[in-house]
Amino acid sequence: MLFDILDILGTIAFAISGVLTALHKRLDPFGVFIIAFVTAVGGGTLRDVLIGNTPVGWMLDMKYLYCIAGAVVFALLFRKRLSYLRTSLFLFDTIGLGVFVLVGIEKGLNIGLHPIICIALGTMTACFGGVIRDILSNEIPVIFRKEIYATACIAGGVMFFGLHLLNMNQQVLYIATALTIVVIRLLAVKYKLELPSFYKD
Amino acid sequence: MLFDILDILGTIAFAISGVLTALHKRLDPFGVFIIAFVTAVGGGTLRDVLIGNTPVGWMLDMKYLYCIAGAVVFALLFRKRLSYLRTSLFLFDTIGLGVFVLVGIEKGLNIGLHPIICIALGTMTACFGGVIRDILSNEIPVIFRKEIYATACIAGGVMFFGLHLLNMNQQVLYIATALTIVVIRLLAVKYKLELPSFYKD
Amino acid sequence: MLFDILDILGTIAFAISGVLTALHKRLDPFGVFIIAFVTAVGGGTLRDVLIGNTPVGWMLDMKYLYCIAGAVVFALLFRKRLSYLRTSLFLFDTIGLGVFVLVGIEKGLNIGLHPIICIALGTMTACFGGVIRDILSNEIPVIFRKEIYATACIAGGVMFFGLHLLNMNQQVLYIATALTIVVIRLLAVKYKLELPSFYKD
To answer: Residue limits of the Glycine transporter domain (chains A, B, C) (predicted)?
Structure first.
């Protein structure tokens, strides 16, 4: 139940981040909606397609479509004032990361995939909506260039399977994984951490 | 039968629009063919992948490949004179929209998806070949920026399910849906209609 | 067995070509790994998704992930000296083309698809990792613009089915197909062959 609420909050935050990107690119209303939609569900859709879990999730559970549509309307109406919500949106977005990684890992475990593949699926669920958003917006995906984002997801996944080995119960697993992701992400943003660079300027 | 002919005309028109984009980007013959192909079948392919209808349609019915190959050769041979065919091509393209939306809606209905998802599948079938074409050509998809195109498809889908509720027979459904799409598209182009803009210059 | 070794050599060569592209685009370590990964397995992944062979191959056989990870680390450590390996890498890359085309053709044959579709699947397996790499790097795919690359794959596929008609045994088929691809590719690079151009400058 709590998990479902966090899932929805994350979806909404992802959708709104899509709206902001789309407005920045001056897209029309249809474009804004599509970018918001793929940002929110694109990662999970890619995951479902790659593991053969079709029809993909958002086609079978209408709540995602409704929440995203609501978030788009809200974000468009209040787009001049979204900056007041910046902290909340950032928080929901970070919670979304944690929840989506867990969803992806569970989908992989359910069909007996290797832990490393499960971590990849979790990271994909959390991060590849943003990748598709950037491709559709004709940008090199931002998570390939900077920001500790995928790294936080991978660290959370490693934590998950570390505790899994120790036979922790599911609740501990979930909370520790999500907390790992949230804390790394918050620290990374606070201290402007990036992955070490290969390039000297 | 008529439906099949219209389907083919639409496929050809979509393929030729792909050829024109590819020539504009100065692609080589292989690139021209691939862009024509994805423009023509990319929307249906994405739909099939997302609903799990695999192998995707064009792998099982060779007529699409042959028609597209023929259209590409034709368009390349007569590329200096395609402007004489502009009106016909525009008409076929618009007919294609109508037919492809119907195909997508039917695929969704067949597996019991929600009407809104069916409309999304219809719109995807009609419009996402062009989106993939634009991504491969390194452009922000044109239907995200301007043109009443997806909007016409969505309106057609709404018409379909409105009449469906009224228990109209299939033929009426099909004709009314396709006409809605064609008329909105024609009016939009004639009067240069666009979706309302969020941006002031 | 030999086939498996060649498959791995090709995968490694493709991954390293991905690393080089990613470094050129100044991506961070995560971006470098993802680009290397999609370059190496993206073509096969797209093929598996389109024919419904899911979970896709690299999720079930961990050797691809390990080889790619190893290749990425190697390429990053020795990136200043990779130019000494240029000839070997080019050779492995070309071997990869031959092997991947054969893998794709066999996957299509196994589910009874038309020979032309099998050739398309082989070409896709060999070439579309590079296409996805270029899209993620915000470039028009290089094989749409120049280079005899896909053409060599298609020619190999035609050779395969030509000999297939003549009831040649599998070993002859495989060797002749791979040789056709390798020889065309080598000649094309040596003599700087390109597909004929539609454009005059």
So the answer is: 5-79, 91-164
3-state SS of chain A is CHHHHHHHHHHHHHHHHHHHHHHHCCCCHHHHHHHHHHHHHHHHHHHHHHHCCCCCHHHHCCHHHHHHHHHHHHHHHCCCCHHHHHHHHHHHHHHHHHHHHHHHHHHHHHCCCCHHHHHHHHHHHHHHHHHHHHHHCCCCCHHHCCCCCHHHHHHHHHHHHHHHHCCCCHHHHHHHHHHHHHHHHHHHHHCCCCCCCCCCC
Within 8 A of C54 by CB-CB distance, chain A residues are 49-52
Residue C194 included in any domain: no
Is residue B195 situated within a structural domain?
no
Close Cβ partners of B34 (under 8 Å, ≥ 6 residues apart):
B136, C144
- Comparing CA positions, the residue from C57, C54, C172, C49 lying closest to residue C103 is C57
pLDDT digits (tens, 9 = 90+) for A41-66: 999 999 999 999 999 999 999 999 99
For residue range C97-131, list pLDDT tens digits in order.
Answer: 999 999 999 999 999 999 999 999 999 999 999 89
Q: What is the pLDDT of residues B91-141, one digit of tens each?
A: 888 888 999 999 999 999 999 999 999 999 999 999 999 899 998 888 888
Residues of C whose CB is below 8 A from B56: 50-51
In a domain, B201, yes or no: no
Domain range spanning residue C134? 2-142
- How many Å lie between the alpha carbon of B74 and the closest alpha carbon of chain A? 31
C-alpha span between B79 and B32 (Å, rounded): 12
Residues A85, A9: Cα–Cα separation, whole Å:
14
Amino acid present at C23: L
- The answer to whether C112 faces chain B, any CB pair under 8 Å, is no
C-beta separation of B41 from B69 below 8 A: no
CB contact under 8 A, A50 and C49: yes
Q: Is B84 exposed, middle or buried (0-12, 13-18, 19+ CB in 10 A)?
A: exposed
Contact A23, B198 (CB under 8 A): yes
Mean pLDDT of the A80-88 span: 80
Overall domain count for chain A: 1
ipTM: 0.91
